[in-house]
TrEMBL record:
Keywords: Exonuclease, Hydrolase, Nuclease
GO molecular function, one term: nucleic acid binding
Matches recorded under Gene3D superfamilies: 2.40.50.460, 3.90.1640.30
Pfam families: DHH, DHHA1, RecJ_OB
Chain ranges of the DHHA1 domain: 319-409
Superkingdom per UniProt: Bacteria
Species of origin: Candidatus Daviesbacteria bacterium RIFCSPHIGHO2_02_FULL_39_12
Protein name: Single-stranded-DNA-specific exonuclease RecJ
GO biological process: DNA recombination; DNA repair
Length: 527
């Protein structure tokens, strides 16, 4: 692993971190440390909102049914919850619809539109999808449905022929849905709905700088005192501390559980959890989501072992497929392998006639553009520069692989994963005060990562493994260090040896005691 150390800009660590984030001026610092959504009012005024709201109010006045067409991931579920709660509070008749991942796939579907028509709806509002739904938009018009699209995914040159389009790439899908409705509901409800925007922003990996940071910062305040029965039940069954929820707990605990049900079963149960007013039902649904998440973890581990056996290390892109992989976990497979081998990776769930693919990329490779180079043999494709999904006829998989192999050969792909080091520090700088100062930079996430530091030529001692040999523990300068998944290093290191360490500084509260700890990301023998 190659270390890329940021140029030293200040002797003060916090000043260095701010400079790394290009935060220089007093106003920028105020926005960073005390972010407010109101400071980004221009970004919230998205074209098409007024027209869409007028149509919604007309539907309410005439007692028309509105179908909210969502998505099966955390962003889509949260966006659906936002519109369902907001519209019903206005007196609208609302019916939510979440497509089935394997039966329908991503996006506005014929099945969903026909369901809306058969249900007696006159308007359909998409959330977190629809910006490239050209054929579906035409079908909606043929069926006499007024289609309102709210989305944040990358658009193409033209927009679908819809009644109204509310589109922004500056925020997640749930945030776009919130922008649509925020001025039409009481301020108390508008504020309450921000907790769903915060969850979606973290789970969809939007940058936690600027507007995204403001959404999460304000949303976390609501989430940590939430009265939402579903969230309370999920928080309780997940074993996290109410009132101490941050971006980590969203991204690694709550988010995976909201996502899991849509990966393996039907995501409508996640939406029911967020919208239920029955505490008994909330507990049952929260338990269900956790059980499904455990199953998802087991399936992912098995599939990962199978996928690793198919990897050809020298390839610039890994394109792997199997009949045994559920479409619900291929994104996880692609993500894990892309991270481990530092290559853009595509995992395909191979079906009899149609196969589903999911892709994850690395720095410098716009994976959705790469995949769109094969649009002529794809059924559909969408996503972001770093992640994409698509459908393809199974008979075209081999030609798809060959064409992408040829396409990627002309692109610069780094051969080694780069670990960004924010600052080189000395052991004496690792204090409880520094830990407290670092906490002021939260919420951490994409665009504002938890800082990784490096110590050069430091002596280690008390080397041992924990977790049945999986993890490495040791000390340096009487500070505890833990290296998860690096147990094999126990045979390469010796007590008294000098090493270079890359790490995250954290506070270990195990057994009720607080102590500084280094969470190791890489170890190099000092030279």
């Amino acid at each position: 692993m190659q270390w890329k150390v940021s140029h030293k800009k200040s002797k003060d660590i916090i000043e260095q971190l701010l400079a790394n984030r290009d935060i220089k001026f007093p106003k920028e610092r105020e926005l960073f440390f005390h972010p407010k959504i109101s400071d980004f009012e221009n970004d919230l005024q998205i074209a098409g909102i007024d027209k869409a709201i007028n149509r919604i109010l007309k539907a309410i006045e005439k007692n028309e049914l509105i179908v909210v067409f969502g998505d099966y991931d955390a962003d889509g579920i949260c966006a659906s919850a936002i519109l369902y709660k907001a519209l019903t509070s206005l007196g609208a008749k609302v019916l939510p619809y979440i497509p089935h991942r394997e039966k329908e796939g991503y996006g506005l579907s014929r099945l969903g539109l026909e369901f809306a028509k058969d249900s007696g709806a006159t308007a359909v509002i998409t959330v977190d999808n629809g910006i490239v739904a050209y054929d579906a938009a035409k079908l909606a018009k043929e069926l006499g449905l007024d289609l309102i699209i709210t989305d944040h995914h990358l658009s193409q040159e033209k927009l679908p022929e819809a009644f109204a389009v509310i589109h922004s790439i500056k925020m997640c899908g749930a945030a776009v849905a919130w922008c649509l409705i925020k001025n039409s509901v009481p301020q108390s409800l508008s504020q309450e709905l921000l907790q769903f925007v915060a969850i979606a922003t973290v789970c969809d990996m939007l940058p936690l700088i600027g507007l995204g940071r403001a959404f999460v910062f304000e949303g976390l305040r609501i989430l940590n005192r939430t009265e939402n029965l579903g969230l309370l039940a999920l928080i309780n069954v997940s074993g996290i501390n109410f009132g101490e929820i941050g971006s980590y707990e969203i991204g690694h605990v709550l988010g995976p559980r909201l996502n899991a049900i849509g990966r393996l079963e039907h995501a409508i149960d996640a939406l029911r959890l967020l919208c239920t007013k029955d505490p008994v039902k909330a507990k049952k649904l929260a338990k269900l989501l956790c059980e499904v998440n455990t199953t998802r973890q087991q399936m992912t581990m098995l599939a990962l072992d199978q996928a690793k056996a198919l990897v050809v290390r020298e390839n610039k892109i890994h394109i792997l497929h199997s009949k045994e992989w559920s479409a619900g976990i291929i994104g996880l497979i692609a993500g894990r392998l892309s991270d481990e081998y530092y290559r853009p990776t595509i995992a395909i769930s191979q079906g009899e006639v149609v196969s589903k693919g999911s892709a994850r990329s690395i720095d410098g490779i716009n994976i959705v553009e790469v995949i769109r180079s094969c649009s002529d043999i794809l059924i559909d494709v969408g996503g972001h520069p770093g992640a994409a999904g698509f459908s393809i006829k199974t008979e075209h998989i081999e030609i798809f692989k060959k064409r992408l192999d040829g396409y990627i050969k002309d692109l610069p792909v780094q051969s080694e994963k780069v670990l960004a080091i924010e600052a080189e520090v000395e052991v004496k700088q690792l204090t409880r005060k520094l830990v407290n100062d670092l906490q002021k930079l939260e919420p951490f996430g994409f665009g504002n990562p938890r800082p990784t530091f490096a110590i050069r030529n430091t002596q280690i001692s008390d080397i041992r493994t924990v977790g049945n040999g999986k993890h490495l523990k040791f000390k340096t300068a009487d500070i505890d260090a833990i290296a998860f998944g690096m147990g094999e290093f126990v045979n390469l290191l010796q007590n008294g040896q000098f090493v270079d360490l890359a790490f995250i500084l954290e506070l270990d509260t195990y057994n009720g005691f607080e102590r500084i700890q280094l969470k190791i990301k890489d170890i190099k023998v000092a030279v």
